[in-house]
Amino acid sequence: MSLSKVCLVIGAGDATGGAVARRFAREGYTVCATRRSLDKLQPLLAQIRIEGGLAHGFGSDARKEDEVIALVEHIETQIGPIEVLVFNIGANSPNSILTETARRYTKMWEMACLAGFLTGREVAKRMVARPDATSDAPSGQGVAHKGSIIFTGATASLRGSAHFAGFSGGKMALRALAQSMARELGPLGVHVAHTIIDGAIDTEFIRTMFPERYALKAQDGILNPDHIADAYWMLHQQPRDAWTHELDLRPYMERF
Q: At 187, is the secondary structure helix, strand, or coil?
């Protein structure tokens, strides 16, 4: 088994998740990246390896308990200790409450919150069981920093807009989960953080579906995934006497 420290990214898509994976790989972490389709991970894995990093890809459905348990067990026994978990599943599918279905609503909650609970629980079990920190990151003193768990939130984590009942319900629940975990796990040496990504991100989806918003890129009016990833790295590096639990990231021109 490799003794490399591992960064597990659940939902390593083409924007934020992929940028986070590349950022931690550049810092010497072995990246374990997941998507439901392993084929869609291949460009990211290839890029990390070309840049000299180590990466493993997994096709996994984070809503399924048995798959999550097996994934974490495999990584911990065959690759290395998970020092950082980044949960980055989106689940954004707007629809009118008048036509929303129970099936769609439930699926969004499963993706946005249940999956966060399952992966957070399984990784936390491993982190708190470690006798010492697995990181050489600053920890202030003593034992302490046994790992970081970062949940990606959104504008919907704070308010439910029209047509976003399902998405906001799941994201608000994820925020509550993060708060509860932080209060329980912080004293045990695990840094739990929740980020609010409040604004459009530089993605193909935004470029295609919202060209007027995408045009603001030239004025730094949409979020650069690499800069989001820098913030995630900063969160993991924080000493425990000044841990951030919730971090807002938004373009300077975004209203809030």
A: helix
Looking at the domain assignment, is residue 254 inside a domain? no
Q: Is residue 100 part of a domain?
A: yes
| CATH, residue 93 | 3.40.50.720
Full residue range of the structural domain in which residue 63 is found? 6-135+143-249
- DSSP conformation letters of 70-126: HHHHHHHHHT--EEEEEE---------TTT--HHHHHHHHIIIIIHHHHHHHHHHHH
- Does 232 map to a domain? yes
Q: Any idea which residue has 């998507």 for tokens? A: 35
Amino acid making up residue 186: G
pLDDT number for residue 90:
85
CA pair distance 69, 199, nearest whole angstrom = 33
pLDDT digits (tens, 9 = 90+) for 89-133: 988 888 999 999 999 999 999 999 999 999 999 999 999 999 864
| Residue 1 belongs to some domain of the structure | no
Give the residue among 9, 28, 11, 20 at the shortest CA–CA distance from 249. Answer: 20
What is the domain count for the chain? 1
